[in-house]
Amino acid sequence: MKLLVCDLDGTLYPKKSESSELQFQNNVKAVQKWVEKGNKFAVATARGLHHYSVLTEKLGLEVEFIGCNGAMVRLDTGEEILKEFPCSVFIDLCKFVKENNINASVATGIGDEWVWSGYEKYPRGVEVYDSLRDVISIADLDAIDPTLGTVRIQIFTPPENRDILKGMIIDRNYPVTVTTSDHDMVDIGPLESSKGISIMELCQKYGITENNLIVAGDSENDIPMFEITKHSYCINHAEPEVLMRASKVVESVAELIEMELEKEN
Predict the structure, then answer these.
(1) What is the pTM (predicted TM-score) of this model?
(2) What distance in Å separates the CA atoms of residue 75 and residue 62, rounded to the nearest whole number?
(3) Which domains does the chain possess?
């Protein structure tokens, strides 16, 4: 039995284009074939567990779900595992962005509510994010208990500012991990938390060795996956520094599954 762990956005879910829906359906068929052959499939994504039911409906399969870049895990038994860090980091970042007039918005989940620093900065005016206004509340920083836990902070900022802002956050020495999950997003998570760490924990659970682990992704937050196995695939639209960290480059998940299944014949 082999385990394939796949990123979602930009990987299992193709980048949006005229052919993306067809490519997604081809990816789904390939995943189903992979499982029918007696292998296991899991996802590792920056998305939260709220997306689990959407994913399983799309796939027609129950799968292991590693969310929030490794901070949230849902096993196929239904058990959920969370790793958290204090909301004091969110409060401080909101103040930092506002005080320095940085073109960015800071968002996190507190309880069942998604809150962020405000509407006046990026991604305001970016069409793909317009729907966020209906589901996010402006944070009342004075009302938030700084000791409460959260699993992920997202910072939306224009692509040309992303890496500069990431460096500024790292320099603030919060007790967190800092990575990027999209061209305009900086992600913050708990220490000792990454897609790679959670995948290794999954491998231990099933007794799967490194030689039987395959991973696929397309963003910086996928590099910890690439580092734990020699069977790593990167989708060819990724940034150059991400492409060079994987052992192989492919156009799609369907292509990599076809390659791996051919090895078994």
Answers:
(1) 0.90
(2) 9
(3) 3-83+193-264 (3.40.50.1000), 85-190 (3.30.1240.10)
